[in-house]
Amino acid sequence: MFCTKCGKQIPDSTKFCPYCGANCSPEQDIAGQAGQVFNKVEKELGSAFDEVKQSFNGNSNNQNYNQGYNANQNYSNGYNNGTIPPYSGTRLKDDRGLASYIILSIITCGIYSYYFIYKMAHDVNIACDGDGENTSGLVAFILLSFITCGIYAWFWYYNLGNRLAANGPRYGLSIQENGTTVLLWQIFGAFICGIGPFVAMHILIKNSNKICNAYNRAQGLM
């Protein structure tokens, strides 16, 4: 095996690296990985709390959004040339995570999941502006899902997955998963110990993060 600190090869039964003295026992490796996962979840939760707080307090960076959007009503012609959406006046959130989504949804008895969908739709509509599509917001999601006994929610996830995949090339990204992938996980994946919907949400989170990150880089917001 190899030392995780200095990278040199050492015997498999070695507990301490003879070169740098690092602890190489399996228990230490597991503890280190667990610590990394904990730190990642902690960072996701902190970011999610900050996003919610900014939504209540107001973010001065959002003041220019409507102005910038209205000033670029003819952008759809530019999209055919592969151009990037105009600057919206705000940095899009590109570090959403499945762990924070699950934990905060449980803590808030499901309320955060709706806020999460609202913000994701908002950011995707900005990053994908000009593609001729529109991701419906929270009100439509709740009402139509209720009326259709949840079928509209599948339709919403399907359309979002397709939209993210279709907009990948304009940012130089190759997104393999599309709406069909998401829908299959939502429906049939639910029979795999119920993890399907979480896998589907992970796909949407991962791909929306990619699109939003590419938008931020294109606008010099990194």
Average pLDDT works out at 79
Outline type: globular
Largest sheet: none
- Helix tally equals 9
Could you state the order of secondary-structure elements as H and E?
Answer: HHHHHHHHH
Return residue spans where pLDDT drops below 50 for at least 5 consecutive residues.
59-81
The number of distinct structural domains comes to 2
Number of DSSP-assigned strands: 0
Percent helix = 55-70%
Question: How does the helix and strand content classify structurally?
Answer: mainly alpha
**Strand fraction:** under 5%
Whole-angstrom Rg: 21 Å
Distance between the termini: 38 Å
Pfam families: DUF4234, Zn_Ribbon_1
Transmembrane segments: 98-118, 138-160, 181-205
Protein name: DUF4234 domain-containing protein
Domain DUF4234: 96-165
Structural features:
single chain, 222 residues, mainly alpha, 2 domains, 9 helices, 58% helix, transmembrane helix, DUF4234
Account of the 3D structure:
By secondary structure, the chain is mainly alpha-helical. It has two domains: 1-46, no CATH class; 90-222, no CATH class. Helices cover 58% and strands 0% of the residues. It contains nine helices and no strands. The longest helix is centred in the N-terminal third of the chain and has 32 residues, at 26-57. It is globular and about 65 Å long. It starts with 25 loop residues before the first helix and ends with a helix. Mean pLDDT is 79; it is low at 59-81. The chain crosses the membrane at residues 98-118, 138-160, 181-205. Residues 96-165 form the DUF4234 domain. InterPro entries: DUF4234 (IPR025328), Zinc_ribbon_dom (IPR026870). This is DUF4234 domain-containing protein.
